[in-house]
From TrEMBL:
Protein's recorded name: glycine--tRNA ligase
Family annotation (Gene3D superfamilies): Anticodon-binding domain, Bira Bifunctional Protein, Domain 2
Organism: Candidatus Nomurabacteria bacterium CG1_02_31_12
Cellular compartments per GO CC: cytoplasm
PANTHER family, sorted: DNA POLYMERASE SUBUNIT GAMMA-2, MITOCHONDRIAL, GLYCYL-TRNA SYNTHETASE/DNA POLYMERASE SUBUNIT GAMMA-2
Amino acid sequence: MKEKKEDNLMEKIVSLCKRRGFIFSGSEIYGGLGGTYDYGHFGLALKNNLKLYWWKKFVDNRRDMYGIDAAILMRQEVWQNAGHVANFVDPMVECEKCKEKFRTDQLENKNKCSVCGGNLIEAKKFNMMFETRVGASDDSSAISYLRPETAQGMFVNFKNTVDAFHPKLPFGMAQIGKAFRNEITPRDFIFRVREFEQMEIEYFVRAETWEKYFEYWKDEMLSWMEEVGIDMSKVHELEVEDVDRAHYSKRTVDFEFDYPFGRKELFGLAYRTDFDLKNHKLNYIDEENTDLPVGKAEKMIPHVIEPTFGVDRAVLALLLSSYCEEEKGEEIRSYLKFKPNIAPVICAVSPLLKNKIELIEYANIKVFAPLKAEFGRVMWDDNGNIGKRYRRQDEIGTPFCIVVDFETLENDTVTVRDRDTGEQERVKVEDLKKYIQEKIS
């Protein structure tokens, strides 16, 4: 296996993503819009598989989690009381000469512009929320914001969830959705963007138990990363110092990843105390407090543990973890070593020759259609010769390529090629479903 060169690995990933229909620059035909990206067919499939697996692990397979899909637009009071209007800011400097703007905390030289060498003007605070207006009125009451996080949509629905389901502590609320931040300097492909997606949990606990559940959720997050195929040797825990924590957090652990452009944040785990529920004036009737007389209940404010997963950063970390190169003679074979449960395509079906009707009909009716009905993520590929198809499917990350050839017509067996080893074996058509199911299990 050939060593991956970190200096051009990002270039290879970006090129592969465009070439194979994973990710494109936003508004590309008009010159692009900074910090925005569009997911193509396979990128969307990869992202959806990550989200489905996350939802299955943290919501469907649990008894203490309630899902929600809150509106992106909320009243401005939500963000005022949550502290975002006053505190959701980044320090910003501007070049005196070329007027380029930078985040102060991302600069090596705080005095000189990295673009033109000009002097940088003194830092000022920049609120990253996108401001908009709701309705026809143009006074201040119409101001709203595109949400910079999904968390507040869960907090403002805390009472609704408690009233509807009467959950006992501890319990959580989970949401997958878009968030928006007007980043000063979006960069590094989909790592830092202005429109992104989060998978987030607000887990409500009694104040005295927060440390236990903080450790529990740290282990759960690490477990999920490993299960989806993120390279755990590149994942590191960082205890965030007081000065760097968000205004609502009493403790934060960042899970960082070794990207080609440096060790940067991948996911985060925060102890938000009772900050949000208290500011929204929300409480909980604790009927489980055994210290109180029978028939009495206590109003209390739960504390919150918040595991946050960025979908786009998960996609990038997974692409970087899965990318492999192998020397084959004078050529280099590149492929994405996705786990089958996450891969955009589980298997691709090909007739050996695309101009032989008998091969096409057999492949389509007896192989492709049954597998498509069973697994969904099955692709038909008859473009180019068989070698080109293998290379294309390798870069898509397809674990298995199934070829219908002339021997198939004689004995009802097909060739199944393994993406990682390149090895091929004959499998009976009637056994294909079982064969693939055992492989992906």
